[in-house]
Amino acid sequence: MIPGNGSAPGRATWHLACLLAAALTGTATAGTFSISPIRVELGAAQRRAVLTVHNEEDRPVVVQATLLAWKQAGGEDQTEATRDLLVTPPVFTIGPKADQVLRVALRGQPDPTREQDYRLLLAEVPGPPEQGFTGLRLALRLSLPIFVTPAQAAPLVDWHLERASDGALSLVAENSGNQHLQLSDFRLRFGDEAHAMHVGVMRYVLPGSRVSWPVTLPEGADPAAAMSVQGFGDQGPFEANVAAAR
To answer: Global pTM?
Structure first.
């Protein structure tokens, strides 16, 4: 997944970093486009959504849209093909500096008890290289979340430390609620602010899933001290107690 930076409220632009270019002879090129909104929320009362893809380039771009079911297993994101949703058009060409409207819709009835999670994958379909081009052409791929949420939904996240057999510590967030929590930034405190550490950046914890981050104790921190985590998520700022290592 290519991370995005919002260029305007509700819009994000993804640039494919050509990291291989420095190690290769020649040049590398990639398309650039933006999409708005950057997440989709559906449910029984809102079964369809409209998105706009904008081509930032001075040349046409061919894009393929694919819908994927999204889950987390062993703390890792996993996706697979799904027919729960429909996207139209599935393949399209956007002219230079032009827009394309995408429509996403539910095929069936949403689960009334638990959020269902999906990803919309947009992938550039590379055309033939221009005459005389001898470098590397990289295709852009971006992914954005689709949440199908019941009327009554909320995350319920338990925080605790875990110690591996080799002594390494991990901070674990386990979501037993029926809705995801998106964590954008947070800190772990061991007793007081003098023994606090930055732990992680943006990550989703899907319902019924758990994710973890490696933790190195700040110098002088007592792992038996009262611990708390403070941060920001898509539900707003939060603070929670952290259980000692299990």
So the answer is: 0.82
